[in-house]
Amino acid sequence: MDVVNLDAAPAFVTKDGSEIRELLAHRNSVIRNQSLAEARLLPGQATEEHYHARTEEIYYITHGSGRFRLGDEIREVRAGDAIAIPPGLRHKLWNTGTEPLRLLCCCAPAYEHSDTFITE
Known about the structure:
Layout: E1 11-13, E2 19-24, E3 35-41, E4 50-52, E5 56-63, E6 65-70, E7 73-78, E8 82-85, E9 91-95, E10 101-108, E11 116-118
Antiparallel strand pairs: 1-2, 2-3, 3-10, 4-11, 5-8, 5-10, 6-7, 6-9
């Protein structure tokens, strides 16, 4: 049984500049076709605009608030919001709040630096 506690997951910085803690993926579990990680952005931080050629993502905001751009559409997001990100669409997330913005990132197939393309 693979169980990973968030506090035990090592942090690393993704190609888009966000700090993540990968909870489950092919690198540390029996999971083969997706990944689950928690990402964090401090107040005033933002990811670099990017897209994934193959990977679809779901962002689920668990703490804080921010602004999210998908393609040409921009909207405010906050804790409790789930965001669908299809492959091939550029996206960017800003923390516009006063506390860390924390979100769960579900990726299928699993997150890989090689499938992340910076567009700014």
